[in-house]
């Protein structure tokens, strides 16, 4: 799809039509969170104005409407990721989903001396919960070997003693380097060894069409707000083979079947894992975001974002003193020699450009890159070639402003 065709979608995102520091806003912080189209805002607004009530708990008209919209949103998500509807558990986000899986699915399988396999690339949300679990159970983390391109080295992995590994917790796409992991191949390796595969898909779902049946994972988590949807809503796909063995970690209303004086039993999945009043409007907003993305098409979005990223990377490579660390799937991480990333990000902001600066919740990876932090530009479907070109020019200005003696 031509650049001009994609420009039309910018009008769907009102927040982009503003100036920051007297410059037109360029929003390049999409890996942190994406902006929301009118389709999402309108869906949530209409729900609150017309249909809002608590779900599953009333026979009156508003309760029935609300319940229908909520469960319809679950079906939309299931179709989106090619899963069965009862395999879709709504959470508050990727972090909540991973914590749920650590407690409810993996912990009961662990004994002292076991291992959880992960990588040095992980976002803290897919590392700290496993560290805490290992400490509780007397286990350890094992880090998978990586290639020079920061993918799991399958050949080297085959040589490791993984006889006591019970779970693999891994990201689908790095939020720092944009590197995609070979999830389907890792699943094949893991299934031969009775190892659970749990995937952090937060960065993948906005850029790739993901298919749970093709990937074959045990669990997969992602967040709505990185997919043009609202905050406060996420998805945990849990393969139906684990619905009985997985334990709920929140207890209360809605998830129960019968409450006795001393003990209770629970509903089937997904309601077994959704105690309390869920994020109803947010689920409806997520469904609207999915429909919006599907109407454009992932193939077209990927082509557009890939062209923009290539243009940005090539432009940054022409600026003296720019050090690139990785680029892919709409993400590029870099630094400017002699300039702290936070100072550079502030200078970019004065040019109206919103970038991320910091360790990106990936401190183990920063240590391996031998830097305390990086700059990160991350692209979305509403970004344009003109914005990329402005950023390249601004990078030259930022370097010259700090006058650190390069060229």
Topology:
Layout (H helix, E strand, L loop, with lengths): L2 H5 L11 E2 L2 E2 L1 E2 L10 H14 L9 H21 L6 E4 L2 H13 L8 E4 L9 H10 L2 E4 L10 H5 L6 E7 L11 H9 L4 E5 L11 H4 L3 E5 L10 E5 L17 E4 L4 E3 L13 H17 L1 H20 L4 E7 L2 E6 L4 H10 L2 E2 L1 E3 L4 H7 L4 E5 L6 H18 L5
Parallel strand pairs: 3-15, 5-6, 5-7, 7-8, 8-9
Antiparallel strand pairs: 1-2, 4-10, 9-10, 11-12, 13-14, 14-17, 16-17
Summarize the structure.
This protein is of the alpha/beta class and 407 residues long.
Terminal CA distance: 39 Å
Portion of residues within helices: 25-40%
Determine the number of helices (DSSP H or I, runs of at least 4 residues): 13
Low-confidence stretches: none
Give a count of the beta strands, DSSP E runs of length 2 or more: 17
**Morphology:** globular
Described by strand count, sense and barrel closure, the largest sheet is: 7 strands, mixed
The strand line-up of the biggest sheet is 4-10-9-8-7-5-6
SSE-based structural type: alpha/beta
* Arithmetic mean of pLDDT: 95
β-strand percent reads: 15-25%
Order of helices and strands: HEEEHHEHEHEHEHEHEEEEHHEEHEEHEH
Determine Rg (CA atoms, Å). 22 Å
């Amino acid at each position: 799809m031509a650049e001009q065709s994609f420009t039309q979608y910018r009008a769907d995102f009102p927040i982009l039509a503003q100036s920051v520091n007297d410059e037109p806003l360029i929003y390049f912080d999409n890996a942190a969170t994406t902006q929301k189209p009118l389709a999402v805002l309108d869906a949530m607004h209409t729900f609150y104005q017309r249909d809002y009530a608590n779900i599953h708990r009333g026979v009156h008209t508003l309760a029935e409407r609300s319940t229908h919209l909520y469960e319809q949103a679950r079906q939309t998500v299931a179709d989106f990721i090619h899963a069965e509807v009862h395999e879709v558990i709504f959470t508050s986000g990727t972090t909540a989903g991973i914590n749920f899986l650590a407690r409810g699915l993996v912990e009961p399988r662990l004994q002292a001396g076991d291992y959880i396999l992960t990588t040095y690339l992980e976002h803290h949300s897919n590392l700290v919960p496993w560290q805490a679990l290992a400490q509780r159970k007397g286990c350890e983390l094992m880090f998978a070997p990586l290639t020079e391109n920061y993918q799991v080295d399958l050949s080297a992995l085959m040589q490791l003693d993984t006889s006591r590994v019970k779970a693999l917790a891994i990201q689908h796409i790095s939020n720092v380097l944009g590197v995609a992991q070979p999830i389907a191949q890792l699943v094949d390796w893991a299934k031969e060894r009775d190892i659970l595969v749990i995937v952090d898909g937060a960065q993948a779902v906005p850029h790739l069409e993901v298919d749970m049946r093709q990937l074959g994972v045990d669990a997969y988590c992602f967040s709505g707000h990185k997919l043009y949807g609202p905050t406060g809503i996420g998805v945990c796909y849990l393969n139906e083979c684990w619905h009985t063995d997985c334990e709920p970690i929140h207890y209360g209303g809605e998830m129960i079947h019968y409450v006795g004086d001393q003990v209770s039993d629970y509903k089937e999945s997904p309601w077994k894992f959704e105690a309390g009043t869920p994020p109803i409007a947010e689920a409806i907003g997520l469904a609207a975001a999915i429909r919006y993305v599907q109407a454009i098409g992932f193939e077209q979005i990927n082509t557009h974002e890939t062209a923009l990223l290539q243009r940005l990377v090539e432009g940054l490579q022409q600026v003296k003193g720019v050090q690139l660390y990785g680029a892919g799937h709409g993400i590029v991480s870099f630094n400017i020699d002699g300039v702290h990333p936070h100072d550079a990000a502030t200078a970019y902001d004065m040019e109206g450009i919103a970038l991320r600066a910091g360790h990106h919740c990936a401190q183990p990876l920063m240590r391996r890159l031998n830097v305390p932090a990086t700059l990160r530009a991350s692209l979305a479907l509403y970004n344009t070639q003109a914005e990329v070109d402005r950023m390249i020019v601004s990078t030259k200005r930022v370097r010259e402003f700090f006058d650190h003696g390069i060229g």
